[in-house]
Amino acid sequence: MVAPITDVEEKMYAMDIHRSIIRSGIKAGLVSHQDSFSHILIPASGNLFIEISPMYGKTEKEPLMVYTDYGVNTESTAEIEIAQMCSYVYKARFTVKYAETSHNQRSLRNVASQVSATGTMLGAIDHEAPSFGEFLQGALYKINRELSIEIYPVSRASRN
Questions:
Q1: Per DSSP, which regions of 99-159 are E strands?
Q2: In terms of residue numbers, what domain contains 132?
Q3: Collapsed DSSP state (helix, strand, coil) of residue 78
């Protein structure tokens, strides 16, 4: 009998979301605490930053991505190419914080993998979406609408 290894799965999902954020042109850092995934940190303008962490259900932490297998039975290879057999749903808590000290500002600028910034919490939202673009942009929109905070993530420098 094989069971999923929850902490490995959680870190894998976090790394996938982190990689997707970087690919979209936004600076981000993957933060760990005691060799376990803690959150993804995104610096923003105006001394703000966003922490992306797993949502908590009634009893336990929910994964950042949920895999759904539709179990589509197809009879030909053409139908297999057309049918959507499975998908992931992205879900996380986005916490907006204000960095108060110059030490935190240095941490936010460097966004090293083991650096965690602390600050004053301004608000948090739970958000989920079926695609990564909708997940990230939808969360920024929801932060603006529900928390009345305009937030602009810091862009990463191009490699050129």
A1: 120-129
A2: 6-147
A3: helix
